[in-house]
Amino acid sequence: MLWLLFQDDRAPLGVGGIAREVHELYARWYGVLADGAFPAGDRLWQYPPGAGPVLLSPGLLPGLTYFQAFATLTLATDLLVTVVLARVGTRPGRSLRGAALWTAALPLLLHIPLARYDVQVTAFAVISLLTLSRSTRACGVFAALGALVKVWPALTLIGTPRGRTTREAWTSAAVTAGVLLLALAALFRDPFDFLRQQGGRGVQIESLGGTALSFARHAGWPGRVGYRFGAMEFTGPYVSSVAAVSLALTVTAFGALLLWRLRARHWTPATPYDAALGAVLLFTVTSRVISPQYLVWLLGLAAVCLTSRQTTQRPVAALITAAAAVSTLAYPVLYDDVVACTWTGSLLMLARNGLLVTAAGLSFHRLWTAGTRPEGSEGPTPSEPAHRQRDLPDRTASAI
Questions:
Q1: Pairing relation of β-strands 224-228 and 231-235?
Q2: DSSP for 203-252?
Q3: CB contact at 8 A, 367 and 260
Q4: Which residues is 189 bridged to in the sheet?
Q5: Which range has highest mean pLDDT (42-51, 184-193, 290-299, 388-397)?
Q6: pLDDT tens-digit series, residues 256-273
């Protein structure tokens, strides 16, 4: 991965230029942030305020260029995630499969993880989930930190056991987020300008809707592909309708997750992990944007699931791993075909997104089946340690 990163300008695989985002975009934002302001009016700045400290962090390593410091910190974060997964995997009733998946599957994305800050975001989500059994408040703190950087880690709290565990974790997350938002608003100007830029996003060519439009071009649809808001997006007739459908599907996914939470009666120590993976999968496949670095999130959450022997998500993890491999073919190896909507590019995106949709559907089905079994059909797993059973919900607890 490192070799590919430093050979990026020579484009040894596909379109090249993957590291340009760090060299040019992140470095430029670093200069703005160092002056005490968020990049106001920048159409490419679409991230919550917590992204600011992450992009400023390479400044903590003097003597290195911004690019070198960024790659070093990303590798250090990768190591941290590996160590955490490995340590948890050695506990009774746990498994090292999670650490193995993270170590073996992340390189399937080539050097993309080292040229984006999604490894750092994923670390917050991984640590949040793995601290739940020991400290619900710490779980909430790490979820809030991740959500302030890229929103989606807030979904790690969707599967916390009902009752006291949920109240403590969610309250801790809300307090942490509120305090940090106030601090960032006091230290930086224009902390919420990202909301204005985010609302202008269209349908990215790698999204599920983009795949449909790619095949529509073969059927004569006159739309075009252009660079907008930091991504290659479709423009033309019916694009706004496709975007609206994506939003409607996202709302539907949220409703399905809420219904699961209201109907679920059985929790195991793996349920919060499985629910987090299922939720992020659903929101990923219904998004207007499915960038290749999103696979970093899914691999991290799948790795957390595999640390538990009680997880329901093993086949889902296999599908995500396959999707990561196909995603690399789509970007960067054959990205020119994807942009040009050739049959090769369209079929590649159909394969990658088909794997993700299958994974999302299977993940939710297994989560629903495991959580809504009829009363008395199955109790806690006999091998489950007694100190972990205390996290199972009281059946008389409130729905939330």
A1: antiparallel
A2: EETTSHHHHHHHHHHHTT---EEEEETTEEEEESTTHHHHHHHHHHHHHH
A3: yes
A4: 37
A5: 290-299
A6: 999 999 999 999 999 999
Q: How confident is the model at residue 75 (pLDDT cuts 50, 70, 90)?
A: very high
- Structure tokens of 245? 């459908």
Number of Cβ within 10 Å of residue 302's Cβ equals 31
Find out whether 271 and 161 touch, Cβ atoms under 8 Å.
yes
**Cβ-contact 113, 296 below 8 angstroms:** yes
How many other C-beta atoms can be found within 10 angstroms of the C-beta atom of residue 252?
12
| CB atoms near residue 395 (< 10 Å) | 10
CB 159 within 8 A of CB 273: yes
Task: Please answer whether residues 232 and 225 qualify as being in contact, where contact means their C-beta atoms are separated by less than 8 angstroms.
Answer: yes
78 within 8 A of 106, measured Cβ to Cβ: yes
Residues 208, 152: Cα–Cα separation, whole Å: 18
Measured between alpha carbons, how far is 201 from 43 in angstroms, rounded to an integer?
10
Q: Is the pLDDT of residue 153 over 90?
A: yes
Please, which pLDDT band fits residue 377 given cuts at 50, 70 and 90?
A: low
Q: What pLDDT, on a 0 to 100 scale, did the predictor assign at position 391?
A: 40
Averaged pLDDT, 71-81:
97
Average pLDDT, the chain: 90
Q: In whole angstroms, what is the distance from residue 322 CA to residue 154 CA?
A: 26
C-alpha to C-alpha distances, 62 to 65, 192, 205, 333, 383, nearest whole angstrom: 8, 30, 39, 34, 50
Task: State the DSSP code for 151.
Answer: S
The mean pLDDT of 1-13, rounded to a whole number, is: 83
Type of residue numbered 11: A
The residue ranking higher by pLDDT, 122 or 46, is 122
At a CB cut-off of 8 Å and minimum separation 6, what does 112 contact?
18, 292, 293, 296, 328, 331, 332
Q: Please say whether the beta carbons of 213 and 239 come within 8 A.
A: yes
